[in-house]
Amino acid sequence: MEYTKFLSTNALSRKSSWITQLRRYMIDPSPDLLWLAGGHPDSSLFPFTETTITLKNGQEIHLDPKLMATSLQYGPVEGNTELLKHLSELTQKLHSPPLWSQTQQLVTVGGQDGMAKTFVMLVNSGDYVIVPEPCYAGIFSELTALNPHYLSVEEDEEGMRADLLRSTLEQWKEEVGETHSEKRLKFMYTNPSGSNPSGTNMSEKRRREIYAIACEYDFLILEDDPYYFLQFQEDLPPSFLSLDTEGRVLRFDSFSKTVSAGLRVGYVTGPKVLVEKISQHIMATVMGGSSLSQVLVNELFHKWGMEGFLQHVKEVRDMYRRRRDIALSAAEKHLTGLCEWHEPRGGMFLWLKAPKIKDVQAMLFERGVAKNILLVPGNGFTTRPELPCQYMRASYSTLTPEQMEKAFKILAEVIREEIQLQNDKQTTKDC
Ligand SMILES: Cc1ncc(COP(=O)(O)O)c(C=O)c1O
């Protein structure tokens, strides 16, 4: 696959830093090497020396002075070498990427960091990108700043609709595809498992249909999958990475939802040429993720092994599934007749539609907050946030059953009041 056509002018002008040339000596330095290159501080002068971290199950991770020194030092830009070995093993076990020999991995400061840098790598002003409707709101801050044209494609319970994607692209091709050939269709963004905000898991059939369309129309797929382990089913559909026979998928994983959000560790997997470009951007900005965070995640793999890690994520998933069930029964009890929803198949969110409310924003931010509940209005999850929206996102990830019950009871009151207000306004208008 030829990737230059996908790169932005930013990425095309970005050159590998000379510091990168020193990297190969850092990865496995000879003990005899007298290191006069680079600006490494002497870690023996740092105030920290060693630490022991107790895990919830009583096990301990001990960072002795040697490991502590590594944790406090600059590390390789692509990430801790030992951790990368675990990530490689995990990825091959779960996704068996068909083009593994042409694939590279890179640790990022959470999945968000990898995606933001990918957007910069790919998008020139006016390029076309495909996003689901609704879409994870967090991508818009960086992506919209790059001024793309959004092709927004609605989801149903199986994820983005392949028939609508096809008709959108047919129309796009007819209207602009040929005339503005310098503006390219670059990628589709997808959050296929336990989608934020809709809670859908994209079915295998949908994934295969969409992958085939990506090959036909020649665009990349950015697979943002932080809720991969939070799918509430045993048999998981194949990831886009595992379907990728042409090298058009960049996959973003994250430990935020399973190990710790504050450690800020995620990783990108994808075609070497593209991952190398992201790595150059990392060199220019953070110069690599936190070494301490990466050492901790690595030590966790070391302590638990792959099987222990997979057992842990199952337990996390089961807990969220129980919370999902509690949220659903509270919704059933209090919101029936006021809201519509689908059962979330993964993730942390219930996507509610209030069909009798014209726009939920003022209702949530004014009356909702005054009564001590806060939900996210749905308009932030669309490419047209200025338009009124009847959707809202409720998270069930942290509330106790009692709090969930109370929250939806209050939400029902707030919605009833809003309906009353709308009716009163209408009556005044009619008079
Ligand atoms: C769909 C989605 N992608 C990415 C992120 C960012 O995750 P991270 O903490 O790995 O940066 C989030 C966080 O909520 C998310 O919901």
Could you walk me through the main structural features you see in this protein, from its secondary elements to its overall organization?
It is a single chain. The relative contact order is 0.13. α3 crosses α11 and α12 crosses α13. This protein folds into two domains: 295 residues, Type I PLP-dependent aspartate aminotransferase-like (Major domain) (Aspartate Aminotransferase, domain 2); 111 residues, Aspartate Aminotransferase, domain 1 (Alpha-Beta Complex), CATH 3.90.1150. The strands form three sheets. It has an eight-stranded mixed β-sheet with strand order 3-10-9-8-7-4-5-6, with helices on both faces. The longest helix is centred in the last third of the chain and has 45 residues. The chain is built from 13 helices and 13 strands. It is of the alpha/beta class. The model has no long low-confidence stretch (mean pLDDT 95). Bound molecules: pyridoxal-5'-phosphate (PLP).
Record keyword descriptors for this entry.
alpha/beta, 431 residues, 2 domains, single chain, binds pyridoxal-5'-phosphate, three-stranded antiparallel beta sheet, 43% helix, Aspartate Aminotransferase, domain 1, Aspartate Aminotransferase, domain 2, 13 helices
Q: What is the average of the pLDDT values?
A: 95
In terms of DSSP E residues, the strand content is 15-25%
- Overall radius of gyration: 24 Å
Task: Report the CATH topology name of the largest domain.
Answer: Aspartate Aminotransferase, domain 2
Query: What is the strand arrangement across the widest sheet?
Result: 3-10-9-8-7-4-5-6
What is the number of helices? Answer: 13
The top level CATH class name of the largest domain: Alpha Beta
Derived structural class:
alpha/beta
Ions and ligands = pyridoxal-5'-phosphate
Q: End-to-end span in angstroms?
A: 66 Å
Number of domains: 2
Describe the global form.
globular
**Major sheet summary line:** 8 strands, mixed
CATH superfamily of the largest domain: Type I PLP-dependent aspartate aminotransferase-like (Major domain)
